[in-house]
Amino acid sequence: MNIVMTGGTSGIGxxxxxxxxxxxxxxxxxxxxxxxxxxxxxxxxxxxLASVKAFAAIDxxxxxxxxxxxxxxxxxxxxxxxxxxxxxxxxxxxx
Length: 95
What we know:
Blueprint: E1 2-6, H1 11-22, E2 26-31, E3 42-43, H2 49-63, E4 70-73, E5 78-79, E6 93-94
Parallel strand pairs: 1-2, 1-4, 2-3, 5-6
């Protein structure tokens, strides 16, 4: 089972990643920082569209035609500034 995951390096996402890995799933995580030692984390910054596209391309290559069975999308960016935007001009989430 191939699972693409964001937000698996801390909090509930880290617990979810560990649980899925114990069950034998092949996790393809993306994050700004390294994950557990036994899982290769792909660099991913959700505030940069180029990083998101690169993550998707790497995952596409890694599944090698086998497909993606599940998405676990936990990562997010939160800001108290209502007018904040990414470098690509997209609004960031506001509190």
